[in-house]
């Protein structure tokens, strides 16, 4: 396929990049560019060269599909293309419109001139993948914009509107209008006025007090970079642009880039980037599956979840019919929604008019008939099968045929719920996370009978709401909560062995979890698990579901909402304070169970909790509940506070080595009292580790 068109207009060769959707600089386009440059230079009828993008995009940079493949570095690589442009004997002019990012911007900066129009999006976003611009970006941008402005763009990876840069030396001409016309006029001027070959590398870059400035920058950036090495490497690269000749600066940039490329943090971020793109593809649902149009949505229940779901929908501009059983519940729900917007009003991210516009999208109702014409319904009523039955039977009789019927259940069997209707193919799970208007994760639960186009429609809706959707099959807890149950049990084991909640939380927070499991328990409310265990005990009287947190609940310690749980809280504060009363309760509980406490190391804490997650993740993968290991990673990263720089539990397992994980699990499983269902290495884990493979390298994975 031809990725570039070549045309000569009045002595100007116009090279149009044509690699939709963003003219990414894949190997075919790179080859075509080099060939076109040679052709233009060899043609005596050509006096100057314009590089422009098709489809009102200049270039989004590297081709992500080439990541991690030999194509990414195949000859000619981007640096070669850039040298060819800079060394062209005839002036090269970049016509920059629309997206001009990463390698695209580096390419433009190697041209002898750049012309631009308003509405462009300029960025060097490599830092977001734990990298730095590795094709001269850190050396050329400071020469064009000055050190400070360039460093800000490189370290933040932020997108800057082209009009903000219109008056800077980044652009030799900048005006509103027809970009191809502007570029041709400018090219003719270059020829006519013999403006020559202006190279950014030749621009002088001086900075008084450079040393002090870079020290200040390093100090500031260190405090926000956390565990990521890339932001500081960006400073080093820009410092080299100031302190060294151009080619030596380029060399330094390359060294830093290579180091970052090999860092586990960048590997994790690149994995996540790919994982997010892979998640929307469903293995047996073609990407061109017709989508059912969703113009209005019904939400049933205006409680915690229904309110947040409604906000997600109206934030995306979708009208919502919000149904409750009683007027006071409806009023309360609406008041909560209004209150939840106060933060955005205070921060100025939303104004009163915007809020009014959103709230006007809600049609409150107490009557199921109000849902007759909606295109999709999301049920978020009490977690009780009888209540769900009543709701779905009613919906089946009221809502128009062809509408999608979704449930937000976290623990009930979706296939059972689907049977309450005569249209199980339209039923799907949309498992939002709390607070639903904030959390990006959405588990899209595929029932045994869910139609493919219903699934595709739910995936599209999630995108409309700005969510990261991951498909899960039906099982107890779906992907996330099924793994969480193992993690919670592992944490509970540790306090039985002799650790304190504070020690377990601290070790896992040092590992990078946003919050340790006991703090999370206090935040969510310990009474939820208590009620669940009571239900389970009634269902399975011969099994022991008891837990030391039952004793906390019996003492009225439900967590933050009662001022005490695993920790103590002073009124108005969420800071956990270790509580000797809890220590006494745990000690008493151990005594009753005949446990002699022992020392538990941080390493054991992390190993047990994280490996428990990994082992259950492997089972979930093997059972076909998750489509690919990277989907499991996304669930844990976006719903459960797993650290991004570790890439998710399955990626972390891959990095650690599956044989290491499998061996540790075997060791734990062999210890007296270990639950074999939890600790025996999953068959998939054993198999892959024996074959020397990884989870993310196996079928259906993005990398
Ligand atoms: P909630 O108690 O805050 O809200 C439930 C609401 O449903 C109440 O306002 C109630 O009046 C209303 N309701 C009950 N029966 C109804 C009916 N027949 N018709 C209309 N409205 C009815 O509960 P929640 O925390 O919002 O949970 C709702 C669902 O979401 C449950 O299935 C739960 O498992 C699931 N869920 C909850 C969370 C969470 O963190 N709270 C997370 C994910 C999923």
Summarize the structure.
By secondary structure, this protein is an alpha/beta fold.
Q: Round the mean pLDDT to the nearest integer and report it.
A: 96
Strand order of the largest sheet: 12-11-10-13-14-15-16-17
Shape, per Cα inertia axes: globular
Bound molecules: nicotinamide-adenine-dinucleotide
Q: What is the helical fraction, as a range of percent?
A: 40-55%
| Helix/strand/pairing category | alpha/beta
Largest sheet: 8 strands, mixed
Number of helices: 30
How does this model look, in words?
- The chain has 703 residues and is of the alpha/beta class.
- Helices cover 48% and strands 10% of the residues.
- It has 30 helices and 17 strands.
- It has an eight-stranded mixed sheet with strand order 12-11-10-13-14-15-16-17, with helices on both faces. It has a six-stranded mixed sheet with strand order 1-2-3-4-6-9, sandwiched between helices.
- Helix 4 crosses helix 5 and helix 25 packs across helix 28.
- The longest helix is centred in the last third of the chain and has 21 residues.
- The mean pLDDT is 96.
- The site of nicotinamide-adenine-dinucleotide has 23 residues, from helix 12 and helix 16.
């Amino acid at each position: 396929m031809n990725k570039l068109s070549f045309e000569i207009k009045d002595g100007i060769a116009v090279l149009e990049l044509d690699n939709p959707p963003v003219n990414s600089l894949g190997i075919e386009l790179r080859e075509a560019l080099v060939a076109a440059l040679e052709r233009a230079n060899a043609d005596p009828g050509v006096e100057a060269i314009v590089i422009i993008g098709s489809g009102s995009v200049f270039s989004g940079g590297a081709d992500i599909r080439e990541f991690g493949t030999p194509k990414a570095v195949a000859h000619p690589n981007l640096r070669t293309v850039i040298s060819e442009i800079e060394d062209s004997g005839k002036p090269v002019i970049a016509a920059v419109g629309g997206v001009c990012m990463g390698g695209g911007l580096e390419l433009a900066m190697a041209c002898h001139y750049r012309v631009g129009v308003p509405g462009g999006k300029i960025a060097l976003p490599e830092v977001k993948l734990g990298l730095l611009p590795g094709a001269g970006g850190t050396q050329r941008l400071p020469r064009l914009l000055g050190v400070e402005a360039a460093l800000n763009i490189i370290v933040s990876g932020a997108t800057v509107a082209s009009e903000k840069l219109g008056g800077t030396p980044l652009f030799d001409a900048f005006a509103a209008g027809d970009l191809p016309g502007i570029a041709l006029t400018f090219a003719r001027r270059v020829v006519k006025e013999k403006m020559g070959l202006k190279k950014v590398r030749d621009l002088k870059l001086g900075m008084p007090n450079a040393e002090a400035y870079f020290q200040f920058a390093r100090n500031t950036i260190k405090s926000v970079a956390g565990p990521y090495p890339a932001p500081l490497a960006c400073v080093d690269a820009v410092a080299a642009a100031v302190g060294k000749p151009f080619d030596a600066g380029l060399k330094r940039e390359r060294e830093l880039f290579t180091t970052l490329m090999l860092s586990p943090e960048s590997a994790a971020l690149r994995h996540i980037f790919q994982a997010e793109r892979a998640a929307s593809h469903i293995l047996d649902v073609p990407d061109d599956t017709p989508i059912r149009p969703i113009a209005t949505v019904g939400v049933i229940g205006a409680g915690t979840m229904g309110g947040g779901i409604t906000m997600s929908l109206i934030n995306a501009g979708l009208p919502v019919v919000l149904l409750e059983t009683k007027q006071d519940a409806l009023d309360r729900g609406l008041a909560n929604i209004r209150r939840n917007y106060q933060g955005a009003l205070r921060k100025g991210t939303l104004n009163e008019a915007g809020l009014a516009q959103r709230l006007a999208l809600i049609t409150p109702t107490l009557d199921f008939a109000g849902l007759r014409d909606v295109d999709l319904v999301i049920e978020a009523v009490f977690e009780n099968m009888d209540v769900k039955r009543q709701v779905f039977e009613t919906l089946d009789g009221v809502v128009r045929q062809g509408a999608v019927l979704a449930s937000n259940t976290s623990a009930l069997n979706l296939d059972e719920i689907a049977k309450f209707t005569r249209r199980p193919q339209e039923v799907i799970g949309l498992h939002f996370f709390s607070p639903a208007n904030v959390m990006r994760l959405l588990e899209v639960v595929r029932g045994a009978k869910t139609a493919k186009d219903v699934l595709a429609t739910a995936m599209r809706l999630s995108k409309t709401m700005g969510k990261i959707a991951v498909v899960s099959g039906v099982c107890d807890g779906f992907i996330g909560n099924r793994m969480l149950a193992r993690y919670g049990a592992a944490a509970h084991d540790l306090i039985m062995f002799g650790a304190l909640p504070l020690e377990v939380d601290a070790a896992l927070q040092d590992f990078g979890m946003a919050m340790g499991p006991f703090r999370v328990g206090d935040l969510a409310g310990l009474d939820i698990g208590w009620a669940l265990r009571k239900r389970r005990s009634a269902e399975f009287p011969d099994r022991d579901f008891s837990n030391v947190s039952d004793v906390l609940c019996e003492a009225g310690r439900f967590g933050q909402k009662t001022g005490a749980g695993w920790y103590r809280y002073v009124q108005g504060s969420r800071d956990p304070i270790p509580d000797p009363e809890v220590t006494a309760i745990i000690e008493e509980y151990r005594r009753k169970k005949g446990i002699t406490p022992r020392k538990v190391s941080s390493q054991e804490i992390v190993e047990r909790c994280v490996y428990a997650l990994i082992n259950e993740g492997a089972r979930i993968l093997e059972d076909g509940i998750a489509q690919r290991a990277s989907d499991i990673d996304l669930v844990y990263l976006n719903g459960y506070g797993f650290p991004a720089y570790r890439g998710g539990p399955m990626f972390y397992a891959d990095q650690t080595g599956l044989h290491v994980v499998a061996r540790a699990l075997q060791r734990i499983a062999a210890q007296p009292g270990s639950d074999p269902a939890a600790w025996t290495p999953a068959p998939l884990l054993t198999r892959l580790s024996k074959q020397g493979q990884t989870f993310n390298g196996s079928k259906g994975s993005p990398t």
